[in-house]
Prior knowledge:
Helicase, Ruva Protein, domain 3, D-Amino Acid Oxidase, Chain A, domain 2, 3 domains, eight-stranded mixed sheet, globular, FAD/NAD(P)-binding domain, alpha+beta
Amino acid sequence: MDRREILNGVEQYGGYWDFIVVGGGATGLGVGLDAASRGYKTILLEQHDFSKGTSSRSTKLVHGGVRYLRQGNVSLVIEALHERGLLIHNAPHLVSHQPFIVPGYEWWDGPFYGAGLKVYDLLAGKLGLGPSRRLSKKETLARIPTLEPVGLRGGVVYFDAQFDDSRLALNLAQTMADLGGSPLNYFQVTDFIKTGDLIQGVIARDGESGKHYEINARVVVNATGVFADTLLQMDNPEAKRIISPSQGVHLILDREFLPGADAIMAPRTRDGRVLFAVPWHDKVIVGTTDTPVDEVCLEPRALDHEIEFILKHAAAYMTKDPGRADVKSVFAGLRPLVNMGEPKSTAAISRDHCLVVSESGLVTITGGKWTTYRKMAEDTVNQAMVVAGLGERQCVTRDLRIHGWRKNYDPLDPLRYYGADAVFIARLVNEDPWLGEKLHQKLPYRKAEVIWAVRQEMARTVEDFLARRSRSLFLDAGASMDMAPEVARLMASELKRDSDWQEAQADEYERVAEGYLLRGALPG
């Protein structure tokens, strides 16, 4: 997937596109892939990098949503469980089974959660990942030895799935490109092209060259997540705002806090959310919060009270209480919650996805979650076909293998997240063993991965590699800062950039990464 090659194709094509998709997160990439897989001429434009925002900042779970079952939203749970099963089959190199244990500290916890999770199993049907069952106190502690034993009565084990969110986003872009679509990062839509009141395309600016492009299309899809209102009001300044953003924060801890294969799902917190502690990339991810926010931005920051909230609740379930000094990285993401009325809190706003068709013909898709991205895309393309008057074509993504598809792999292989592409990275190392050197001793990433990211994964900045092609920023922000100068040097060689570019990139990355460190924490 070469950006210059894709852009050349865009410049050479003078006709109407069938679809312009604005937004390169989970939702936009899903729509772009769905449209391209049906044979529609499709271009996707992302103002920054693929999954720069919310879509790289999730809890890393592909799940039905036990909490939604408790709330009575059975239809959402059924849909999500179905999509979970499809995603495991379509991207097995990135999505894997994850056992969860719900610890019980009250006499009624076991029967209550045991019964609820049996319903969860039944709703999954043939796509279930395994039956839930109750555990004794001894069994629970054998599986999670760092779980707080005082007052523990037992637990319930159930199964969901975990994944690497930004790697999946990238693979969706690659799959779209494999099918003839044209995904472009660093390409910002600045205005709409209209005939009368009807949208006929967009004006977009290439962030690298500064050049503006007029791109015509039969339908434009607004899939910009928390920025959806920006495009709605670009189309119509009087448009009602429909997004009530909510911030979710996660902390990364070392594996000593949760050394086994099982995750913890703590079902009761002060704000009504569940708390997860999940093994991920040989670290532990703990979260999340649900904090209403007024403003949206590309780099939201965790608030002190959110950090303390997670640390306090995690300490209630762990023998070793995590403190601020134990946090390797802290990150925040904004959920695009859909507000069509006047709810009292973000916890009351729908997590279902929402489709809106403006009078101009702009199709907006927002809400939802990573697990249901494929179904959201299918619904959006079905609606957009009608708006554009395109010939009907059936969705084919239910069984479409995602780029990199590989079912059998060594779970200890640090390149397993590349799936079938791992062989090409290994080949780079065979040709030049120096590229097999680690970028930092605390993380598994190697120099060859930087080369691959530039050549085949459209990485354009140091942050692209350290935050989303690798997960260095999220796993250990301090170590990632140490890596930045060498990553800049490797990328500069590939991109034909000079020393000033290298220095500027390293400095810019350091400014971003500092926001992932708790105050007082030292890099490295």
